[in-house]
Hints:
Layout: H1 14-26, H2 37-45, H3 58-66, E1 76-79, E2 82-85, E3 92-94, E4 99-101, E5 116-118, E6 126-128, E7 135-137, E8 142-144, E9 159-161, E10 169-171, E11 178-180, E12 185-187, E13 202-204, E14 212-214, E15 221-223, E16 228-230, E17 236-237, E18 243-247, E19 271-276, E20 282-289, E21 295-301, E22 317-323, E23 331-337, E24 343-349, E25 356-362, E26 368-375, E27 379-385, E28 391-392, E29 397-401, E30 409-412, E31 418-419, E32 424-428, E33 439-441, E34 454-459, E35 471-478, E36 500-501, E37 509-513, E38 528-532
Parallel strand pairs: 17-19, 32-33, 35-36
Antiparallel strand pairs: 1-2, 3-4, 5-6, 7-8, 9-10, 11-12, 13-14, 15-16, 18-25, 19-24, 20-23, 20-25, 21-22, 21-24, 26-27, 26-37, 27-32, 28-31, 29-30, 29-34, 34-35, 37-38
Amino acid sequence: MVRAxxxxxxxxxxxxxxxxxxxxxxxxxxxxxxGSRDGGQAAADSGSNNIxxxxxxxxxxxxxxxxxxxxEDVACSEVEGGYQCSDCPSGLEGDGETCSEVDGCxxxxxxxxxxxxxVPAPGEGASCSDCPTGFFGNGIICTDIDGCxxxxxxxxxxxxxxxxxxxxFTCGTCPTGFEGDGLSCTDIDxxxxxxxxxxxxxxxxVAPLTGFSCGACPPGTTGDGAQCDLLxxxxxxxxxxxxxSASNGGAGSADLVDNWACSSFPHTGPExxxxxxxxxxGIATISLTGLAADLDLLLIEDASSGGLCDPAxxxxxxxxxxxxxxxxxxxxxxxxxxxxxxxxxxVDGFDGATSNFTLRVQSATEDFLLNEVSFGATDFVEVRNxxxxxxxxxxxxxxxxxxxxxxxxxxVFPGASNVSAGGVMRWVESSGGPFLxxxxxxxxxxxxxxxxxxxxxxxxxxxxTTNCTNLLDYVERDEDTSDASLPGxxxxxxxxxxxxxxxxxSGEVSLRRTAVAGAGGPYQASDWSFGAxxxx
Length: 536
């Protein structure tokens, strides 16, 4: 029996080869036979070891697998007409005879961008590296890392996941009413910059609301707290000696106040306001003239709350600071002004009235008073400006009588005899030079007999002595106040509590004013006393 060579080739030719080999070894058929199946069967029946060529024996199959036709470690088994190889080992692929390595990365099992490594046989498949930046997973399946997980942005701010390979997230703008980067947002403090008027409290609106609210406007103003307008905002200032013409319905006027705490009358017409600051403490006369309708005049002092004209506060009303004459009559207020204080002059229409007007601030002639009658080495008569404004006393006259038997001396101050507020001007006898800037040479001697009956008068012009119609101030003295005789002054003039006792007065003395209770009359002896002269 000849054994076949094992090989790894095709197995389809193996049965024919085996049959030829078997036939050769068995020789020819016995005589008398035809090599038929019957002969073969007879031989078999007689105990022959021949193998039927159409039905290979197990030895033939064994011979076929003996050549190890299958791949290493692949089982070879008998099949009809030859042999059969089982499956390739794990990690290999083929028909059993031929097996090759299976590349686990061929099918691209890993996620895009992930490195793939084939698992060597007998292992199977592939291994994948880590997921790319911005993803998480096993390398086969990688999922975008959602940076917005956990809502990292401020509530109300949009969160956008960054597209890989970028990591993290991006926050949108802060919600309305907030400021920041979207991750951290803070309430916008819209009170920054003090948007409210003055010291008014500002309250920021709580986000998501926007804006702010202000407290109430202070007294004397009106508005929303952010803007507070003065209820009586001066259109301009008026200086001492100043004069202007305007209308309470014209430029600068307003119609915000109908009721003033300083007046019991309704003023429903438009108002116009001016400010006034005196040159010095003293009396200022404010006059309103040229009216065609019923306008009234009111004065208000700076409010203690910070210089505001507060129409509702009676605490800032000026004493006797309103003039409410009916019709078109002139209005006048005499103000006892204090230097350093601002006053508001208000022109308002009674019952809706509107009119042109002329407004003036001045020291009136009645604000000039006798201040000193000197009997010193240099005799003089001194006049003081008790007004709050610098004023020219030109035109005022002096009538002086040294004694009952002395002739009366009369003098009128020339124009441009300017006297500052609170200042003095002197009529000085001719021998008293050199003269100061506030002194005028009388051009004659001024008679002086201190211990005698005499009088001195100040008039608006040359003194009219019959009815004293232009008398501004008056003082008289008498060396003997017990008799009934008069000092010889104008019969129409008198001194309450006087005349002043001049008995025993001699030398360098003056009769000096010490008070102004009798200013404007009736004239008071208590306003005067003897004392040292101020010039010598």
